[in-house]
What we know:
Order of helices and strands: HHH
Number of helices: 3
Structural class: mainly alpha
Distance between the termini: 63 Å
Shape: rod-shaped
Strand content: under 5%
Oligomer: single chain
Amino acid sequence: MKNKEIEELLNELKWYADAPNEQDYNGEYDPPLEWEQGEVKLLLSYIEQLNLENKFAKEYEKNYRETYKKYKQLENNRDKAIEICDFYNKKYQKDPLGNQKVLFVISNVMNVLKGDSDDK
């Protein structure tokens, strides 16, 4: 029921805003809107609810963008780590200690990506 009341109030407000501010043939202007206090409270609560929903939507969008940025950063870091590991794997392929060197490089790369590097 409130939705119908709000719709009626908004239509009335739209009509009032669009009404020309001119005198009629009797020299009178359209009467001002006369709303009861309950109607005004209903409309104000509706506007407040819209503002809260808008604020929530903006906050959700901001959080989504930040999360997406972090995801992309992790994805880029992962791709870089794979490139580095592939490079060192090929580099040490013929070395007898190649596997140990590659594991050492992978370990260092993982530490850097996690933020645990020694060069802090």
